[in-house]
Amino acid sequence: MKINRHGRAKILTQEEIQLVFSDGLHNDRDKTLFGVCLFTAARIREGCTLLTEDIYTPKGQVRPRLIIRKANTKGKLATRSVPVIEDLRQLLSNYYPIRGETYLFPGRSDGHLAEDSAARILRTACKEVGIIGVSTHSFRRTALTQMSNAGIPLRVIQEISGHRNLEQLQKYLEVSDSQVLGAATTLAMLSPASENVGKYDYDDIYIHPKQSPKA
Question: What is the pLDDT of residues 172-187, one digit of tens each?
Fold first, then answer.
């Protein structure tokens, strides 16, 4: 459930991600599904509809790149190929013995795991660990925002996200209060440079190094 976020899924911190994966998700299938969403910035439909043959070689090895087929992307724009990092490779390796024959994440019938079922799994996991505001889209937003914060050029991030243009991509990215504060402090030009080094309390009030905060 998205709470007080104007319809936008919560961006997860590293601590929250570790908590969800360690204490909220209880089996290899669920950890692998949401690991795919996190480590490839995939939409939940893209994750649920992955084909086993696109993930593993005939000998059962994890392929170096994960393929998200055009037919399963939003708008059916293009097939994406995303490098498999070590964290994801380990999840996929552990999952291999229980993989689906056709779909990586099989459903109860002959098809793939339903998106609604995946959403229920995540809601239950987050409720168990006390995290609110999370939806299946949180992993995609978290991944894209993390890459942006790390200084990865938007054009490169777009190759992974599959957005049609940079304007659409930028709507996904979240700017933190500390980033805004950091940007504002670069405007300090009236005091000597040595005096512009200060700190902020939790209310974002500037405290000069030579001053004491008011009680």
Answer: 566 556 655 555 566 6
Question: How do the residues of the chain divide into helix, strand and coil, expressed in percent and rounded to 5?
Answer: 50, 10, 45
What is the residue whose two structure tokens read 């599904």? 33
Question: What is the pLDDT, as a whole number, of residue 186?
Answer: 60
Question: Which residue, among 114, 85, 111, has the nearest Cα to 100 in the 3D structure?
Answer: 111
Structure tokens at 9: 């899924």
59: containing domain: 14-146
- Domain annotation covers residue 7: no
In b/e form, how buried is each residue of 106-127, taking b as 16+ CB within 10 angstroms? beeeeebbbeeebeebbeebbe
5 occurs within a structural domain: no
Structure tokens belonging to residue 126 = 């987050």
SS3 (DSSP) at 39? helix
pTM of structure: 0.73
| Distance between CA atoms of residues 54 and 49, nearest Å | 11
Joined tokens for residue 21 = 């994966």
